[in-house]
């Protein structure tokens, strides 16, 4: 029980905190307690957290030029005045010893050597121009984390050159989910959890993949007495806020949803009026759902018939204030052969409940539209996307074009379709399954430019690595957020650059554009920001001051039509039929069947980490060590059979990889599943994350889900045995 | 483990030995009343001084904040009599000064007034008891038994007698023949110590879940080798067996014990045997403290 | 004069470590030391399982075991009932750490900090045996402790136990919150909902 406490002091490697403490910040060890005083002469500067991709509004307290504290910005709709642990860890990134300090170029020996910015721009510009002249603009791609500054300077750069090849990191996150939702509902709604009477979470854990506002909404729901179901092979960290845990067999969420639809229809618990009026081909759907009885689903999911019926009835009886939450990566973001189909069914079960865009239902809200100066040159016609997303007749016609099938890059390189790429704030070589395939793919590019704050697995195979200023050292583009109360938000530079030769992404791209004669497409950030505010009728100076401005609500309750082919909710989608699938969602088996004695390796987020970068933040790495967070969860019964005790060293292996970790033996997981968090196993040479565990991507082959092209990240089977046995 | 580690175990051990050694000196005077044990008495009293000094040094070394800011040690008696640390440090400090004085008187062969011996004896017993009370009053379930201070006192005196024997015999081999009465006391203490030890484990195991975890750590867990090998076998079985055999043999030879006859030759074998057996007792005393300190598991607050 | 206390609603706690990380920053602690630590307990057998999370820190006892054993008087209870430490008196004997039933004391190691590669902010820890002080410097300023401010799910309420109208006092009654191991008799002032 007290194990964690007793091993607290074992991780000696970790160093220090940075200087957060500076002089007057606090008084630990500073002599008499009466000297204690609050931070003196501190400045409070608004910013947007970069701990994960949620970009929560925060206030940075700076004293003596150093970050001493961060707080949530109460105006911001995602943080609402609070922050998760990642914010406190990431606040010190600027001072990290691994920071890149000047542009690097890989020489003939494969080693990086520093070069000047002038040389970098000149050489990159020339090489890129040569490649485009020779192979066309569509041989160039850009990989990013989709935020507005990337849109303004990254996407626009690519488009100015005539390419449409923009890939976000979402292929390894929510490509399937977004693809499914896009086709049935026209986009991804947000569950109004706070006001719903019943919420069913599928694989999504607000307590593990934290966005503060969502967790707060769940707490509100709990306080209001709503019923919360969590469907997850693992009893996740949100469990105390849930009324019931449905420990589903991994990869079978689709069966549960099909059966829920079946019960809702059979027991006439659905919103008939809504479905008939706003549904496209509802009768086809109604007919198809007949086969998916709770008895059938029980067999697939390992959930009892009674539980399945109970959930369906709870949802149906409380509609429209009953929702199946939209999830994120969770269970069907990009994980199984049936993930896109699962996403379609989540959308359609919500439609059956008639909750689309009603209070306590699934909301479609829009953010403010932010515009650029009128005098900027607009990109001309773009070459078709290399992945064929959204192009009829292509393999991944269905895939969401806003995301792209980024995991297919190695194939495009091999086929000679991609020759050059830029990558910023994204680490595809580590984040997509099969490191070897990814590494080879990205190495095969004639030109790879990575913009980052430290080396990543992707940067290590790049030709040029350009050092970006870290997030507290830069001002970014004004950005908008939707919601019942839309907001405009801004990241404002809080501290001076620690390393003077680093640059903001916006500077890097516009300077490179100058070099390539593309200046007309760009203007400086300040002009962009002032223009956006002016056109919106808000004060930029006020935004600089407070970081967030709340706008009048534009949200109107009630169904407003869908952004789908038919303009309705697509209970049957023609597009799916066109792409060779069925119009109405149907049961799809997971691709991998787990042999007797093996485990399905599933993964998920831990609340102190984001993607794979944060394990190099010493404070956060320290928590992982202290609490053995980089352990694999195995069901107690299975562990007993294998002679594995809690805390034992174990080996996880399959035909792709063999690695060592420790076992967390628990009753809180489905026997078929082995859960390992997705943040560990870095291969980049960084200070704090060597020897930091395993990567789930080393165990999953390079593969595609048929519908969306997503990488099927949980379609893999592993053996686990005691180390030394 | 709690925040206290090896250094505290050594400190408690040395303080115990010092107290035991001094008590041996007083026993020579008052209990055995044998003129031929003067050297043993002197050795015992003199030994107690540096051993205690070393212990105090280790205590200071372990209190790093005080080590680097020595003036803070002046605050040590701020919490009398509530803090066992304050009280104990006061006892030990007084004991130390008394040891120096008593040692000086012995060195100068001057008369040692009885009140010095009485005070010394009280302070020595206080020191031995304090080493047990210090940890006994901490909020560690395994330590919260009434037996612990008694066990530490008894074990301290027993290890102290052993240390004094070694010191005395190193000085003058012949005293080996005159220490039989003390050996009886020693044997009694060892047997009593074994009894206390097992009752402590029994009581601890039966009163609290966390304490029971500590006990199983000692009996069958990671401390088992130290316990069975170090403490029980080397520290108790060897000395108890050896001293018993010796006392039985001795009884067969008696009486009368002619003062001038050399019944036993204090040969090399006898001396080495004494070093070995008494060394084993001392080692056992160290194992006891190490085990007790290491087996501490904080209170389970998650009940 | 107040009698400060706290309520921690573990039902709302998702074990996200934000409180301990905010605390670390606020108090300038080295990466490997925290004033708040987490215990976890699992009950039941699959599929009827419950996981309990328990954040533990100094419980600011009304009768603190650490104060009682502190030889130098470095640990004391201030006029607002906050158990604090006068660093200039602490000798680092760690008796407080051994006496505290909640394992809430932490000895800060300067050397570990210096080993780090980050810029040294010039702090001196000097091996004193530190603890949570309810962010006294903030509280004196009318602000909330850092662990409370950052807590996303509002699982922490800080306030005056002597004021029956405080949010804290009301919540303790309403949620039937109880101190941890009240049987130990130290009269802790952190109340838990479990």
Descriptive overview:
The complex is a heterotrimer of chains A (725), B (303) and C (194). Chain A is α/β, with parallel strands linked by helices and 725 residues long. Chain A folds into four domains: 54 residues, Single Sheet (N-terminal domain of TfIIb), CATH 2.20.25.90; 238 residues, Rossmann fold (3-Layer(aba) Sandwich), CATH 3.40.50.740; 204 residues, 3-Layer(aba) Sandwich (Dimethylsulfoxide Reductase, domain 2), CATH 3.40.228; 124 residues, Beta Barrel (Barwin-like endoglucanases), CATH 2.40.40. Chain A contains 23 helices and 27 strands. The N terminus of chain A is likely disordered. Chain B has a single domain, classed as Formate dehydrogenase/DMSO reductase domain (Formate dehydrogenase/DMSO reductase fold), CATH 1.20.1630. Chain C has one domain: Alpha-Beta Plaits (2-Layer Sandwich), CATH 3.30.70.20. Chain C is 22% helix and 23% strand. In chain C, the strands form four sheets. Chain C has a four-stranded mixed β-sheet, covered by helices on one side. In chain C, strands 2-3 form a two-stranded antiparallel sheet. Chain C is globular, with a radius of gyration of 17 Å. Chains A and C meet through helix 2, strand 3, helix 3, helix 7 and helix 22 of A and helix 1, strand 2, strand 3, helix 4 and helix 5 of C. Chain A: Belongs to the prokaryotic molybdopterin-containing oxidoreductase family. Chain A: This is Thiosulfate reductase/polysulfide reductase chain A. Chain A: It comes from Texcoconibacillus texcoconensis.
Order of helices and strands of chain C: EHEEHEEHEHEHHEHEE
Q: Going across the biggest sheet of chain A, name each strand in turn.
A: 5-4-17-16-15-6-7
Shape of chain C: globular
Oligomer state of the chains in this structure: heterotrimer
- Can you count the beta strands of chain C? 10
Q: Give the name of the CATH architecture of chain C.
A: 2-Layer Sandwich
Number of domains of chain A: 4
How many whole angstroms does the radius of gyration of chain A measure? 25 Å
Main sheet: strands, sense, barrel of chain A: 7 strands, mixed
Stated plainly, the CATH topology of the largest domain in chain A is called Rossmann fold
Strand numbers in spatial order across the main sheet of chain C: 8-1-10-9
InterPro entries (chain A): Asp_de-COase-like_dom_sf, MoPterin_dinucl-bd_dom, Mopterin_OxRdtase, Mopterin_OxRdtase_4Fe-4S_dom, Mopterin_OxRdtase_prok_CS, MopterinOxRdtase_cofactor_BS, Prok_Mopterin_Oxidored, TAT_signal
Cofactor (chain A): [4Fe-4S] cluster; Mo-bis(molybdopterin guanine dinucleotide)
Organism (chain A): Texcoconibacillus texcoconensis
GO molecular function (chain A): 4 iron, 4 sulfur cluster binding; metal ion binding; molybdopterin cofactor binding; oxidoreductase activity
């Amino acid at each position: 029980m007290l194990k964690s406490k007793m091993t607290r002091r074992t991780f000696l490697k970790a160093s220090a905190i940075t200087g957060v403490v500076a002089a007057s910040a606090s008084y630990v060890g500073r002599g008499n307690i009466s000297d204690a005083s609050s931070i003196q002469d501190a400045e409070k500067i608004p910013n947007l957290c970069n701990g994960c991709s949620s970009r929560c509004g925060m206030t940075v307290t700076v004293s003596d030029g150093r970050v001493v504290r961060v707080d949530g910005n109460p105006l911001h709709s995602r943080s609402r005045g609070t922050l998760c642990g990642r914010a406190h860890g990431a606040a010190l990134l600027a001072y990290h010893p691994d920071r890149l300090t000047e542009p690097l170029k890989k020489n003939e020996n494969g080693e990086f050597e520093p070069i000047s910015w002038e040389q970098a721009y000149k050489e990159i510009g020339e090489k890129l121009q040569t490649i485009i002249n020779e192979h066309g603009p569509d041989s160039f791609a850009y990989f990013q984390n989709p935020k507005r500054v990337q849109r303004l300077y990254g996407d626009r750069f690519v488009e100015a050159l005539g390419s449409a090849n923009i890939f976000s990191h979402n292929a390894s996150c929510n490509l399937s989910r977004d693809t499914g939702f896009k086709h049935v509902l026209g986009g991804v709604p947000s569950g109004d959890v706070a006001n719903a009477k019943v919420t069913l979470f599928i694989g999504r854990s607000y307590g593990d993949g934290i966005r503060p506002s969502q967790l707060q909404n769940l707490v509100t729901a709990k306080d209001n007495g709503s019923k919360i179901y969590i469907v997850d092979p693992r009893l996740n960290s949100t469990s105390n806020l849930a009324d019931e845990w449905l420990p589903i067999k991994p990869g079978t969420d689709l069966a549960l949803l099909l059966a829920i639809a079946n019960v809702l229809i059979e027991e006439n618990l659905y919103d008939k009026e809504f479905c008939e009026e706003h549904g496209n081909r509802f009768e086809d759907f109604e007919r198809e759902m007949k086969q998916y009885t709770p008895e059938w689903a029980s067999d697939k999911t390992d959930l009892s018939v009674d539980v399945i019926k109970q959930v369906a009835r709870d949802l149906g009886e409380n509609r429209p204030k009953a929702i199946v939450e939209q999830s994120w990566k969770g269970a069907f973001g990009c994980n199984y052969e049936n993930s896109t189909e699962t996403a379609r069914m989540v959308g359609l079960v919500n439609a059956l409940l008639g909750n689309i865009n009603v209070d306590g239902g699934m909301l479609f809200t829009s953010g403010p539209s932010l515009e650029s100066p009128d005098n900027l040159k607009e990109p001309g016609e773009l070459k078709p996307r290399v992945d064929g997303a959204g192009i009829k007749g292509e393999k991944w016609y269905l895939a969401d074009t806003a995301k792209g099938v980024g995991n297919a890059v190695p194939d495009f390189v091999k086929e000679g379709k991609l020759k050059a790429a830029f990558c910023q704030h994204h680490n595809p070589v580590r984040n997509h399954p099969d490191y070897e395939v990814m590494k080879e793919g990205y190495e095969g590019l004639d030109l790879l430019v990575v913009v980052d704050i430290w080396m990543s697995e992707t940067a290590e195979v790049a030709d040029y690595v350009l050092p970006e200023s870290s997030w507290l050292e830069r001002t970014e583009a004004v950005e908008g957020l939707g919601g019942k109360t839309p907001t405009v938000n801004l990241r404002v530079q809080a501290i001076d650059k620690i390393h003077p030769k680093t640059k903001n992404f916006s500077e890097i791209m516009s300077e490179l554009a100058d070099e390539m004669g593309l200046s007309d497409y760009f203007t400086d950030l300040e002009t962009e920001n002032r223009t956006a505010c002016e056109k919106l009728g808000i004060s930029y100076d006020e935004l600089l001051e407070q970081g967030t401005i709340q706008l009048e609500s534009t949200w109107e309750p009630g169904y407003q039509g869908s952004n789908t082919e038919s303009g309705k909710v697509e209970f049957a989608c023609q597009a799916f039929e066109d792409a060779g699938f069925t119009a109405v969602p149907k049961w799809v088996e997971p691709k991998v069947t787990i042999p007797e004695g093996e485990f399905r390796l599933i993964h998920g987020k831990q609340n102190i980490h984001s993607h794979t970068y944060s394990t190099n933040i010493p404070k956060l790495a320290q928590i992982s060590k202290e609490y053995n967070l980089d352990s694999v969860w195995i069901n107690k019964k299975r562990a007993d059979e294998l002679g594995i005790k809690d805390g034992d060293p174990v080996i996880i292996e399959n035909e792709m990889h063999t690695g060592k970790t420790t076992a967390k033996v628990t009753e809180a997981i489905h026997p078929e599943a082995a859960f390992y968090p997705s943040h560990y196993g870095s291969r980049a040479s960084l200070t704090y994350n060597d020897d930091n565990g395993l990567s789930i991507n080393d165990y999953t082959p390079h593969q595609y889900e048929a519908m969306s092209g997503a990488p099927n990240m949980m379609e893999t089977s592993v053996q686990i045995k005691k180390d030394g046995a | 483990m709690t925040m206290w580690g090896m250094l505290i175990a050594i400190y408690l051990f040395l303080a115990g030995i010092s107290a035991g050694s001094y008590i041996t000196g007083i026993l020579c005077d008052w209990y055995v009343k044998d003129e031929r044990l003067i050297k043993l008495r002197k050795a015992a009293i003199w030994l107690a001084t540096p051993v205690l000094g070393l212990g105090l040094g280790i205590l200071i070394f372990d209190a790093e904040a005080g080590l680097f800011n020595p003036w803070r040690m002046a605050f040590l008696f701020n919490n009398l009599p509530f803090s066992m640390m304050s009280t104990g440090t006061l006892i030990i400090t007084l004991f130390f000064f008394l040891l120096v004085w008593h040692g000086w008187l012995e060195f100068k062969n001057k008369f040692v007034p009885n009140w010095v011996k009485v005070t010394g004896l009280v302070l020595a017993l206080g020191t031995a008891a304090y080493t047990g009370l210090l940890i006994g009053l901490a909020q560690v379930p395994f330590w919260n038994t009434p037996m612990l201070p008694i066990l530490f006192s008894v074990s301290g005196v027993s290890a102290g007698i052993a240390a004094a024997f070694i010191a005395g015999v190193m000085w003058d081999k012949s005293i080996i023949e005159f220490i039989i009465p003390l050996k009886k006391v020693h044997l009694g203490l060892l047997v009593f110590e074994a009894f206390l030890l097992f009752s402590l484990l029994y009581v601890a195991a039966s009163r609290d879940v966390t304490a029971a975890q500590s006990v199983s750590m000692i009996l069958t867990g990671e401390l088992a080798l130290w316990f069975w090998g170090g403490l029980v076998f080397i520290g108790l079985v060897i000395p108890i067996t050896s001293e018993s055999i010796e006392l039985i043999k001795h009884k067969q030879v008696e009486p009368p014990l002619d003062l001038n006859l050399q019944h036993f030759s204090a040969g090399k074998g006898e001396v080495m045997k004494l070093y070995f057996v008494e060394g084993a007792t001392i080692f056992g005393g160290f194992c006891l403290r190490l085990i007790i300190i290491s087996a501490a598991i904080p209170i389970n607050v998650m009940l | 004069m107040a009698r400060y206390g706290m309520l921690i609603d573990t039902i709302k706690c998702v074990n996200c470590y934000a409180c301990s990380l905010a605390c670390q920053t606020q108090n300038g602690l080295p990466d490997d030391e925290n004033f708040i630590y987490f215990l976890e307990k699992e009950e039941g057998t699959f599929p009827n399982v419950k996981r309990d999370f328990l954040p533990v820190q100094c419980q600011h006892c009304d009768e603190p075991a650490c104060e009682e054993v502190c030889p130098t008087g470095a640990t004391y209870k201030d006029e607002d009932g906050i158990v604090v430490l006068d660093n200039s008196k602490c000798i680092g004997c760690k008796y407080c750490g051994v006496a505290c039933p909640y394992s809430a004391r932490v000895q800060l190691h300067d050397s570990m900090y210096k080993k780090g590669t980050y810029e040294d902010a010039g702090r001196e820890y000097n091996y004193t045996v530190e603890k949570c002080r309810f962010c006294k410097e903030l509280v004196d300023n009318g602000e909330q402790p850092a662990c409370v401010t950052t807590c996303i799910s509002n699982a922490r309420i800080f306030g005056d136990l002597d004021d029956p109208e405080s949010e804290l006092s009301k919540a303790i009654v309403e949620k039937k919150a109880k101190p941890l191991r009240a049987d130990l008799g130290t009269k802790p002032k952190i109340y838990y909902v479990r």
